Amino acid sequence: MRADAARNLEAVLTTGARMLAADPAASIASIAAEAGVDRRTVHRRFDSREELLAAIHESRLSAIETAIEDARLREAPVAVALHRYVENIITVNRTWPVDLTRMLTDDTIRQRRDAYITEVDTFLERATGEGLLRPGPPKDGQQPCWSNS
Length: 149
Hints:
The protein is mainly alpha-helical. 66% of the residues lie in helices and 0% in strands. Helix 1 (3-22) packs across helix 4, helix 4 runs antiparallel to helix 5 and helix 4 (49-71) packs parallel to helix 6 (107-129).
């Protein structure tokens, strides 16, 4: 894919994610205009609004998976991995603010989501086991779950 086409696609997807999170009825034409591309550019790439939404969800899932990989939850020291993960996942949520609920009816997407949830849960168990996090939810009046407070 040419560099300008890749930039346009990224703009359409991130703009679409933001606009659809704010207004699920946002039109392809309004997304294209906000992304700075012609609506025909979007229609050439996506035959329907559902295809655009599926591509946005795919991009969000891929970004989450990359955030988890980059955090090195299994290898890095817990504090380092936790910092990286939180920093990365905040960026993902700001860039891709769409809800995956609609897409979870797709088995492949649900399996990918379940895999990264398991990865994060395993990491949180390691963090708790190493004493960086307290087990269980905070009790009334208790400080957040990190234990050095």
